[in-house]
Specification:
The chain is an alpha/beta fold. The protein has a single domain, classed as Divalent-metal-dependent TIM barrel enzymes (TIM Barrel, Alpha-Beta Barrel), CATH 3.20.20.150. About 30% of the residues lie in helices and about 10% in strands. The protein is built from 4 helices and 5 strands, in the order βαβαβαβαβ. Strand 1, helix 1 and strand 2 form a beta-alpha-beta unit. Helix 2 packs parallel to helix 3 and helix 3 crosses helix 4. The longest helix has 22 residues. The radius of gyration is 17 Å and the shape is globular. About 35% of the residues are buried.
């Protein structure tokens, strides 16, 4: 079995350009009024084009494991970043399902050291629940480390998380030195509970502390 990304760097660049332009325009028009920045996201990502994905529907496609983009942030406290991330995931899942991919890996949520009640984990769980509906014949694996340490959650160039607007970060209090021994398990338990313990949802375990973009999926548990 081989793994393959669903989308290309071209698609990544297109999303980043849309996001940068929209946030720049909002900062000029809203004049810092936080109440106006909580409206629905003004960004709409158009469907995938041939330049946006390496996949096509063919006989061998069922032997590939699709991997969704790790640069999105489904649990972002910024509603625009979260909405753009959901749009990206939906486009990737629906296109992978159309091509005939049977197995899909979704990188786990950014835990932010808040525990299972973190709204970001709940947002992530809702997105996974939607993905199960968008790919009705897919087996979906949530890719999580065995142990979560904030220092291991490295933001790579091009991640959407750094675009989070400052007013949505003011209340975050993260201890960057504390390892959460049960955070990964609690997050996974929250996600699978929200998805009503779907038999098509599994967890993929990562046992080493490597940056998010360099992690390799392990056997499901």
């Amino acid at each position: 079995m081989l793994t393959t990304p669903i989308t290309t760097p071209h698609f990544h660049s297109r999303v980043l350009a849309l996001l940068s332009t929209s946030l720049s325009e909002q900062s000029r028009s809203v004049n810092g009024d936080v109440t106006q920045t909580k409206n629905a996201s003004p960004i709409r990502i158009s469907p995938l084009s041939p330049a946006d994905t390496p996949l096509t529907s063919e006989d061998s496609i069922s032997q590939l494991i699709g991997i969704t983009s790790s640069w999105i942030d489904l649990g972002s406290p910024d509603p625009i970043i979260a909405d753009v991330s959901r749009q990206v995931l939906k486009l990737e899942v629906t296109y992978a399902a159309f091509c005939g991919i049977s197995y899909l890996i979704i990188p786990g949520p950014r835990l932010r050291n808040y525990g299972p009640s973190d709204s970001g984990v709940i947002q992530f769980g809702r997105a996974v629940l939607d993905s199960l509906g968008q790919g009705p014949y897919m087996q979906i694996y949530i890719w999580l480390p065995m142990l979560y340490h904030p220092l291991d959650d490295v933001e790579e160039m091009g991640d959407l998380a750094p675009f989070t607007r400052q007013q949505f970060l003011d209340d975050e209090e993260v201890d960057n030195k504390v390892m959460d021994l049960f955070g990964t398990w609690e997050a996974w338990n929250t996600i699978r509970t929200m998805c009503t313990y779907s038999t098509r949802l599994c967890v993929g375990k990562e046992t080493s502390y490597t940056p998010r973009s360099h992690r390799l999926p392990c056997d499901p548990a």
